[in-house]
Known about the structure:
5 strands; 2 helices; EC 4.3.2.7; GGCT-like_sf; mainly beta; three-stranded antiparallel β-sheet
Amino acid sequence: xxxxxxxxxxxxxxxxxxxxxxxxxxxKDYRRVFYQGSTDHRGTPEYPGRTVTLEPAEGEVxxxxxxxxxxxxxxxxxxxxxxxxxxxxxMKAYLDFFTEPTATTPAISNVLVYIASADKKxxxxxxxxxxxxxxxxx
Length: 138
């Protein structure tokens, strides 16, 4: 069975793993926000940089790319890569993915999405909301 992974940030242009197909589309009821701190590739522990994550937002959509991975070996390699790359994201969700704005039925169900939660006990790198100026400065 194929595995699908949704990219909504840098995964859009730099997957870093082999994939068999790529579809542009969106997930519903989430929005992209620069609330996650990064201490390994966008900053340091003393000065974390900001990266995107998702937060629930009823009625909104987040556009991105879904990658289809067919072979078991490629799926394992992709997950190994993503577990390192997305290590500061504390949640995985399996969501519906749509390709048409008016669709009520998803094009793909159970697309894997990495999310950094707002729970400071589980996600020590969560930075939360800030002004555009503060985000740009970081």
